[in-house]
Automatic annotation (TrEMBL):
It holds the Pfam family Laminin_G_3. Residues 738-759 are annotated as: Disordered. Gene3D superfamilies: 2.60.120.200. GO terms for molecular function: carbohydrate binding; metal ion binding. InterPro entries: ConA-like_dom_sf (IPR013320), Neuronal_Pentraxin_Related (IPR051360), PTX_dom (IPR001759). Its cofactor is Ca(2+). It comes from the Eukaryota. SMART domains: PTX. Residues 1-29 form the signal peptide. Residues 584-759 form the Pentraxin (PTX) domain. This is Concanavalin A-like lectin glucanase. Coiled coil: none annotated. Keywords: Calcium, Disulfide bond, Glycoprotein, Metal-binding, Signal.
Length: 759
């Protein structure tokens, strides 16, 4: 940042993360540049953590940040500080994990040592939210247009745990919490998520979606006058550019106290000694903690008979540690399938779970999902084959659950086989075959306890998919090569991963599981031994691991899902009070920022009638709204009468409508999203003669359906960018009101787009 943070001498600033990305740029006209506010972090269910934080004062704290969010459907944590609790009492353990939490941007509360952040009903007043009941309203930092707001939270042990929350410098809520115990050192400080255990166990529904900048954590209780005087100051980071340091992307602390915030930590390779039942394997292992090994352009994955085998170790489940990561994702291969069924159904299908092997710790015993009582699902292994659970009417919802009861911290060998011709899936756990208790076949589920024979293990027989796709270890892909969530991540280790293009027998698996090199190479398709000598450094300072069987093909890149650096437009000011300069665009120019308050309208649009391609770049983290980038309504149309003459809708699960034809149950939605915070190039093509409509994401064909075969689109209607029309030029529907219009004519000037510079 170009100006230094103005603070009185000796002020106790513990942390000031100004979020300057430190990117190098040339002095060339075609390169964009940040403005005076530098960079912000764009969060999408990310939790960035600084463990063993030792810079808190025991009796006072102030947390400040600038926020920009349109997310109204997640009660997320902005900041959480958790202790590494050893308490045996569950209530105390939860309170330790909630040592200090700033929670819910739409109804913000600040909580120190509460077991319950919010509780309903709460007749005994046990929750943190209850302590703020005397406040007229709680601060709301969520704006439909993404307007920036400054938050400041002040807590002091004095005055019986007095806590204040400021919105743009105005006191909006306060509470006498009664929580006066000293803040303890050595906890885990996290931005963007709430911790249900030390340093992790985040919940997907409690992740922050939006921009965050100028994060400051003080060891004093700041006054309102101090907050107002300095909240628009920018922190000087001229001599501390952010970048990759010691295998981690770091947000530098400009307070001078060295509390640099690592945004990612990469998987690490090491030698391990696995001993089980008198046998021994000395091998390499890759250790994961909310990170991944990824090949986004994997080639040659077996598309018919297949075996995937590896060793894995995860933390033990104990009653004290009752909230580990809910899912442990081992192997995720995403690809595309071809459908040879009805001409009216999708012929190109995105399979985000083409091959998925995961462990989950959820207990469904006694729930509506399990209709027998004497069986625990915790520690089960789930296998998905040629699957996508989100779109296409669940026609590709193929998976099995095996109740192996994996609750310990020991090494275990997993081998999954699938026969293309019969669809039979076998899971071998430490060499022993397992019986599945749950199956989903094209969305039709069945549950039978293993003691009663289990369910039929045949799924997805003779389904077709590409040999090319994206392979991720340690994370679950909800889109090709990304859309990760810390809730679906691996905290553990994997060793000696092998993929075969044949179904191994039980004897094959037993003979080879303790051998680093397979006894026979016949049918071997890939082998990642994860030894340190197979890990290579890449020019960016990160790394990759080699497939030793394929002589350099399909290396897995080591990385982690982190918030993205974007140009900040936070309303900071120079020392003289004038606003800092905005970002400067490069050759990419500006991008439109659209929320449900803005649209672009073009009446009397000359629309192609029998063949069309629509393409655009987009970036979004909005998982609350459907998201409609392109809507064309025919002249004089009304609801369900050519208002959807050409519609590209639902960025969180794409769909296409042509002349009111939106498909049926089996092909209404694609199961493909573009709301991961990354830039996506989206293209949709349609032709009248055969009705084929095709969706492309970043140049890949990801979905193909039939829409309005033989029909023509009438020209002269109204084109709207950013909303769906339920009548020509209006009749908007809004998730949270405001921009919802009536049936009357809508003025072209009623809505306007905002512009933002892009790199």
């Amino acid at each position: 940042m170009p100006t230094a943070l103005r603070r009185p001498p000796g002020a106790a600033l513990a942390l000031a993360v100004a979020l300057l990305a430190g990117l190098c740029w040339r002095a060339a006209a075609d390169v964009s540049r940040p403005g005076g506010a530098g960079h912000a972090l764009l969060f999408r269910d990310h939790g960035v953590v600084l463990p063993n934080f030792k810079d808190l004062a025991p009796d006072a704290l102030t947390f400040e940040a600038w926020l920009s969010t349109t997310d109204f459907c997640h009660a997320s944590a902005l900041m959480s500080y958790a202790l590494d609790s050893q308490a045996t009492d569950e209530a105390q353990r939860i309170a330790d994990f909630n040592h200090f939490v700033v929670f819910d941007p739409s109804k913000t509360v600040a909580c120190h040592d509460f077991q319950f952040i919010d509780l309903w009903p709460d007749p005994r007043g046990e929750s943190c939210a209850f302590s703020f009941n005397h406040s007229k309203s709680l601060p709301n930092f969520v704006e439909r247009d993404g307007k920036w707001h400054h938050i400041a939270v002040v807590w002091t042990a004095a005055n019986n745990g007095y806590t204040r929350i400021y919105w743009d410098g105005l006191l909006m809520a306060s509470a006498i919490t009664g929580k006066t115990k000293p803040l303890q050192q050595g906890g885990a400080l996290m931005l963007g998520a709430e911790q249900d255990c030390y340093g992790g166990c985040t919940d997907r529904g409690q992740g922050f979606y939006g921009l965050m900048d100028e994060v400051r954590l003080w060891r004093t209780a700041r006054s309102q006058s101090e907050i107002l005087a300095h909240m628009r100051d920018s922190s000087g980071l001229e001599n501390h550019p952010n970048g990759i340091y010691r295998e981690a992307l770091v947000a530098k602390d400009s307070s001078g106290r060295g509390n640099h915030l690592p945004l990612i930590t990469l998987p690490t390779a090491a030698h391990v000694d696995i001993q089980k039942g008198g046998d021994r394997l000395q091998a390499g292992a890759l250790s994961f903690r909310n990170n991944y090994a990824l090949q986004p352009d994997y080639t040659g994955m077996p598309d018919k008979d297949i075996t995937v085998e590896f060793w894995a170790r995860t933390p033990a489940y104990t009653p004290r540690n009752a909230t580990p990561e809910r899912y442990a994702e081992f192997f995720s291969f995403a690809s595309f399938g071809r459908d040879g069924g009805s001409p009216q159904q999708a012929s190109t299908v995105f399979m985000d779970d083409a091959i998925l092997i995961e462990k989950y710790m959820e207990e469904f015993q006694g729930s509506k999902w399990i209709d027998f009582a004497q069986f625990s699902t915790r520690g089960s292994v789930s296998v998905h084959i040629n699957a996508n659970r989100e779109g296409n009417g669940k026609r590709y919802d193929h998976w099995l659950d095996f109740g192996v009861g994996w609750l310990d911290a020991e090494w275990h060998h997993l081998a999954v086989t699938w026969s293309w011709d019969s669809g039979e899936v076998q899971l071998y756990f430490d060499g022993a075959p397992q019986v599945p208790f749950w199956s989903s076949k094209a969305g039709k589920t069945e549950v039978i306890a293993p003691a009663f024979g289990g369910v039929d293990p045949h799924i997805a027989a003779r389904t077709s998919r590409s040999i090319n796709g994206s392979l991720a270890l340690g994370q679950l892909q909800d889109c090709m090569g990304g859309c990760f969530s810390p809730e679906y991540a691996l905290h553990g280790e994997m060793a000696n991963l092998r993929v075969w293009n044949r179904v191994l027998s039980r004897d094959d698996i037993a003979k080879g599981m303790f051998a680093v090199e397979p006894l026979s190479q016949g049918g071997l398709a890939a082998h990642y031994p994860f030894t340190p000598d197979t890990l290579e450094r890449t020019p960016d300072g990160q790394g990759r691991v080699r497939d030793v069987h394929n002589q350099g093909a399909n290396p897995l890149q080591l990385g982690a899902d982190a918030p993205d650096w974007v140009y900040s437009t936070a309303p900071l000011a120079a020392p003289d009070g004038t606003p800092v300069a905005p970002p400067m665009p490069g050759s990419a120019g500006y991008a439109m920022f659209l929320s449900d308050q803005q649209v672009l309208i073009r009446p009397n649009f000359t629309m192609p009638s029998d063949e069309i391609t629509v393409e655009f770049w987009m970036q979004s983290v909005d998982t609350c709204r459907m998201g409609v980038p392109f809507s064309y309504a025919a002249k004089g149309s009304e609801y369900a009468q050519s208002d959807n003459a050409f519609l590209i809708f639902s960025a969180r699960n794409w769909g296409i409508a042509v002349m009111e034809d939106e498909g049926g149950m089996t092909d209404h939605l694609s199961g493909v999203s573009a709301t991961d915070g990354k830039w996506h190039h989206i293209a949709v093509t349609w032709r009248s003669w055969d009705g084929v409509a095709t969706l492309y994401d970043n140049g890949r064909e990801v979905w193909q359906v039939v829409r309005a075969k033989g029909q023509k689109i009438a020209s002269g209607g109204t084109l709207i960018i950013g909303r769906e029309q339920d009548c020509e030029g209006g009749c908007f529907d809004s998730a949270i009101g405001g921009a919802a219009g009536g049936t009357q004519e809508t003025s072209q000037q009623e809505y306007g787009a905002q512009a933002r510079a892009v790199r």
